[in-house]
Design brief:
The complex is a heterodimer of chains A (about 325) and B (about 270).
Chain A: H1 3-32, H2 37-42, H3 48-58, H4 64-76, H5 90-125, H6 130-144, H7 147-161, H8 177-183, H9 185-211, H10 214-221, H11 226-263, H12 269-278, H13 282-310
Helix pairs in contact in A: 1-13, 5-6, 5-9, 5-11, 6-9, 7-9, 7-11, 9-11, 10-11, 11-12, 11-13, 12-13
Chain B: H1 6-23, H2 25-28, H3 59-95, H4 97-111, H5 115-125, H6 130-157, H7 160-167, H8 172-208, H9 220-227, H10 240-268
The chains are: A mainly alpha (about 325), B mainly alpha (about 270).
Amino acid sequence: MHPIIKLVSQRLALGLLLLFGASALIFGLTEALPGDAAQAVLGQAATPEALANLREEMGLNRPALTRYFEWLGGILQGDLGQSLTNKLDIADSIGNRLGNTLFLAFWAALVSVPLAIFLGLLAVRYRNRWPDKLISGVTLTTISIPEFLIGYVLVYFVAVKLGMFSPLAMINDSMSFWQKLNSIALPVIVLTLVVLAHMMRMTRAAILNVMQSAYVETAELKGLSNFQVIYRHAFPNAIAPIVNVVMINLAYLVVGVVVVEVVFVYPGMGQYLVDHVTKRDVPVVLACGVIFAAIYIGLNMIADIVAILANPRLRHPK
Amino acid sequence: MKNIPISAMIGLAFTALYFIVAIFAPLLAPYGMAEVVGDVWEPSSSQFWLGTDNIGRDLMSRMIYGGRTTIFIATAATILSFVTGSILGFLAAVLGGWADQVMSRTVDLIMSIPTLIFALVVLAMVPVTIPVLIIVMGLLDSTRVYRLARAVAVDIAVMDYVEAAKLRGEGQVWIIFREILPNALSPLVAELGLRFIFMVLFVSTLSFLGLGVQPPLADWGGIVKENKDGIVYGIGAALYPAVAIATLAISVNLVADWVLNRTTSLKGGRG
């Protein structure tokens, strides 16, 4: 077999194994910790008899391992079970919200990735001069503030004081595409600011690392302009680390989205998860947790595979 | 100590200021933490320096007490995370073999789930109290410390002086605490600052989501949650924690940068 195909399929298998492990870990946690779904329905003051009856009815008194495989089998067939609080099918409730969340994350990625790479290149080109210092200063500040506070600062100054964009990101199916974009503008800006900082700093570091190698010095000495050195010699060699950085940050976006959705009351997965954590609705929390973990693991796996494809040195493990 | 750069001095001064305010909060706060003293969302005045909050409590006092809660939880969780993470990391490096494999793969598995999501799953099951928060945050974060500690310790464990200690028959405890720990301390200390900031952001986020510190106890994330409805009316009460968290984070970062630079220059043999 071709070594690349072999390595890539190894990565895929590892990703699947990790996914399986993560689902077992999340399920196991809800088993190991005190309190279960029956307790959540009846509350702390429930009598032991009522608890036992409800456990019987919900099938909670069967062995954990049986229930885990039933649950896992259900997920694979698209059946996520029923919510405790409103008895609705979880898959139905999530379907629309997952689409909304991906819509938000997609636009945030579309804005932030090119911008981060451009700013990273700019910072390297003007290293230790004012553009670099300005970019570093601004990104250090955005890293130091949690997402939800960046959100409220923007709502306060942009939406309320300047009257641009809406402070709440309500979207529904009857809205046109442009209306939707206008309404998610602020959350997209917040998410962009959050991942931009990380992505830009890591891009800058990756390119600076390459800039110190001998072939870049040769290129400089033969009289190429600064941008040409970066564009022709440094950038191609920095692609692998940059792609890695981008993927890690897209995975980070998945988490950032949870908080940002709550700030802007956006009807997505994150808000759904947080709502049901407060209501102690275990089946919903399990389902959302596994979906978020799956997206996160998937993106990290893609990052690994792209790194292998882009960097020939990784194709020959020691 | 005389050639501390300006940025690190500023960082140290602000960090110290925040910790002093946190420790002496009851002496410094003009009003009680949950004491209703005025009207709802009064603007700042000589009586209430930062105005009042959504139910008429003095915001200055809330911020001071809130800083105390936030900094206390973040500090406790950081200590827990460092003690657990570094001891397990050193142990993995010293023992090697299957013990190292088991620990490292478990950490890989835990880190494959986003920290916030993991914390939310746990907090959906257990009652949210301050000790629970500290344990959940500390243990989740110890995975990162573990990786760093193990990576550093693996390099140290093959040094001649560790070999010498093994040959003269010292036990594992001696090797971990007397041989590896002193030599692994500098990178760990630099990391300490970053982990602390991460904890401050983490506990603020959880409180903002309503799953952290519970009212009436004040903390910075909770203050945002309580006052967020005022923002659309142009009342900036919810934004003060942003300033507090950002200045604390930046000053700790400045100190951590300085420690990191100092330790790398030590390695370069310049100092």
